[in-house]
């Protein structure tokens, strides 16, 4: 049985005015994400990927178009999806535990219950013993773990991850990618992921949307045929190499392919 659409983006256009000039950031963006899928968006810098995330997260209203989550219009409704940025955004004056439960506090969950939910996750996903530590005491990868657990504990079906590993070194990044896949498999969240790293997109994703240069629009959708569960060895497979080549061609030629979906 086919999974239902968890997220539907329909006709999203966003126009800004700067110095008296009209700038079209996004133009008629249409796509949908099935429940439980891991979907990545790649594209050149400035193509509107983060603008699209702000719209989906309810932080920015589109000039035109609609966003549906679980069949409900969420335009302008902040808090309906989980949202994690590249910067971990941990509050330096709060302990790691208190940072992780911040989203629950905002939702009005009592502290005792929030802590009860957080501690098993910290133990299971590599943060045991760091409950009383502060962000400055942790490595970049550990801070990103805390930020991701905070987003997870916010407990929304849809999670938006905007280049969460972009600032990490290559070895830490791969470790975090595997860690994210473990969490995704455990919790069955629907994930929309922005990255500039083609290898990362192929390794993590079920589907990849390729954005055109500004004004951002969907140039192509490619499905990743590599079976799960995945391991770093998959990055040297012929399937991986073929898909990476297709994505490079799309990104650097700007020409639509047979996979073009308008």
Task: Describe it.
The chain has 262 residues and is α/β, with parallel strands linked by helices. It is built from 8 helices and 10 strands. The strands form 2 sheets. A 6-stranded mixed sheet has the order 6-7-8-3-9-10, sandwiched between helices. It has a 4-stranded antiparallel sheet with strand order 2-1-4-5, with helices on one face. A hairpin with a 6-residue loop joins strand 9 and strand 10. The protein is globular, with a radius of gyration of 19 Å. The relative contact order is 0.17.
Question: Which characteristics define this entry?
Answer:
262 residues; alpha/beta; Rossmann fold; six-stranded mixed beta sheet; four-stranded antiparallel beta sheet; 8 helices; globular; disordered C terminus
CATH topology-level fold name of the domain at 1-77 and 206-262 = Rossmann fold
CATH architectural category of the domain at 1-77 and 206-262: 3-Layer(aba) Sandwich
Number of strands: 10
Structural class: alpha/beta
Q: State which percent range the strand residues make up.
A: 15-25%
Distance between the first and last residues' Cα: 27 Å
> Which CATH first-tier class of the domain at 1-77 and 206-262 would you pick?
Alpha Beta
Question: Which regions are unreliable across 5 or more consecutive residues at pLDDT < 50?
Answer: 255-262
Largest sheet: 6 strands, mixed
The helix count comes to 8
